[in-house]
From TrEMBL:
Keyword Transferase tagged: no
Membrane-crossing residue ranges in chain numbering: 12-34, 40-62, 69-88, 94-114, 126-146, 166-182, 189-207, 248-270, 290-312, 347-368, 380-404, 419-437
Alphabetized InterPro entries for the sequence: Azg-like, NCS2
Topology within the bilayer: Multi-pass membrane protein
Species per Swiss-Prot/TrEMBL record: Larkinella bovis
Protein family per UniProt: Belongs to the nucleobase:cation symporter-2 (NCS2) (TC 2.A.40) family. Azg-like subfamily.
Keywords attached to this entry: Membrane, Transmembrane, Transmembrane helix, Transport
Annotated signal peptide: none
Descriptive protein name: NCS2 family permease
Compartments, as annotated in UniProt: Endomembrane system
Length: 438
């Protein structure tokens, strides 16, 4: 038994698994809420989310033997919806195909142990900046979904009036969820979503705002619609042929890049928090963990979701004493009952998931502290990547301008040693993407 060799009691591992699940279960609601804006059915994405989280968390526990949950990544689903589908006009089925091919590429890189070469190509400041930039992007989406930030012809954007009951409900949800998170309350985000949903009910009833609540004839008003069979409508709906068009390779690359460094940073962070290192000083079973991550991305395309990745929230279970794969197995298994709750969960309004998106953005800002802001040839490219992701409403644009500005600034500063040949190749793809019409 793994737990014996690690010195961790089975009871501790089980409790750690429950804690990890409570910290990550918000993905069951938030992922469908985001991907449904790309035109995918909420219930279908929910089924894909649960199956992916269950199956790949089990693989992480049984094969990689690490205490980490694998589920659809927050930044990756935002890229899928708002950059690929809405921004570039790609059909959702084609975007799912791009997810699949990104997974295949990730698998090849993992099998041939090419991660070391890739890690050396991408400058660390850009990795940190992209992660934080995606966090800002998700936060912007949360505020937009809540109608807290609105368009303004004079100032481009502005804050909505607090007289709007929708804004008051969102503000209540944001503050309550933030307090629960700060106090380390188990399942803080999902409880915040539930409380905000309940608070939104009178808004829909008394003010008649359909965007506040989605309680219709099939939901809480009619108790016959709380449970339903899983929705497998997205299974195998990906378009494998059209997703291989040349114009979509920047999308595939962005999926691979974001997923790879998201997972690497998670494995390194978790290893540091729990001292889970192999003899050579690398995070424990890193190859197997990365292979699991690659399988999660490939499976996501087949199931009907954005790419899966290891969740940094797994650190919650590790803080509870989880050290083995049993933690991931327990956490993954707890996703399964939600296969049958799609009618109940689909009534959750956008203003209830919006606070979770805002706070997820806050969680993703930590890497900016690792950037040396006093070193301007590092700081300026990182800054451009950081701000252009939310300002351009495109993760791809942030990555592209981060890479290109890094290369130009470093070369003109006489630091060509900080521009590897591999990065020049990446730059060439970035330039092609800029002039591809997207």
């Amino acid at each position: 038994m793994q737990n014996v060799s690690s010195g961790s009691a089975t009871r501790t591992e089980i409790l750690a698994g429950v804690s990890t699940f409570l910290a990550t279960m918000y993905v069951i609601v938030v992922n469908p809420a985001i991907l449904s804006q790309a035109g995918l059915p909420f219930s279908g994405v929910l089924t894909a989310t649960v199956l992916l989280s269950f199956g790949c968390s089990l693989m992480m526990g049984l094969y990689a033997r690490n205490p980490m949950v694998v589920a659809p990544g927050m930044g990756l689903n935002a890229f899928f919806t708002f950059t690929a589908v809405k921004g570039m006009g790609i059909r959702p089925e084609v975007a799912l195909g791009a997810v699949f091919w990104a997974g295949i590429l990730f698998l090849i890189l993992s099998l041939f142990n090419a991660r070391s070469a890739i890690v050396k190509i991408i400058p660390k400041p850009l990795r940190y900046a992209v992660s934080a930039g995606i966090g800002l992007f998700i936060t912007l989406i949360g505020f937009e979904n809540a109608r807290f930030i609105i368009a303004n012809p004079a100032t481009l954007v502005s804050i909505a009036s607090l007289k709007d009951p929708i804004i008051l409900t969102f503000s209540f949800g944001l503050l309550v969820t933030a307090v629960l998170v700060v106090r380390n309350f188990p399942g803080a985000i999902i409880i915040g979503i539930a409380l905000t949903t309940l608070a939104a009910l009178p808004v829909g009833r008394w003010w008649g705002d359909a965007s506040a609540v989605n309680f219709g004839q099939k939901t809480l008003v009619n108790f016959q619609g709380i449970l339903a069979a899983p929705d497998f409508s997205l299974l195998g709906k990906l378009d494998l042929v059209h997703s291989l068009q040349w114009s979509l390779w920047p999308v595939i690359f962005a999926f691979v890049f974001t997923d790879l460094f998201d997972s690497l940073s998670t494995f390194v962070g978790v290893a540091e928090a729990a001292d889970l290192y192999d003899k050579d000083g690398t995070p424990r079973n890193l190859n197997r963990s990365l292979l699991t991550d690659a399988v999660a991305t490939t499976a996501a395309g087949l199931l009907g979701s954005s790419p899966g990745t290891a969740y940094i929230e797994s650190a919650v279970g590790i803080a509870q004493g989880g050290r083995t794969g049993l933690t991931a197995i327990v956490a993954g298994s707890l996703f399964l009952p939600f296969l049958f709750l799609s009618p109940l969960l689909s009534v959750i309004p956008a203003i209830a998931t919006a606070p979770a998106l805002v706070l997820v953005g806050a969680f993703m800002m930590k890497p900016v502290t690792k950037i040396n802001w006093g070193q301007l040839d590092d700081a300026i490219p990182a800054f451009l990547a950081l701000v252009l992701i939310p300002f351009s409403y495109s993760i791809t644009q942030g990555i592209i301008w981060g890479f290109l500005s890094w290369t130009v600034i470093k070369l003109t500063a006489g630091k060509s040693n900080e521009v590897p040949v591999g990065l020049l190749i990446v730059d060439a793809f970035c330039i092609l993407a800029l002039f591809s019409g997207h």
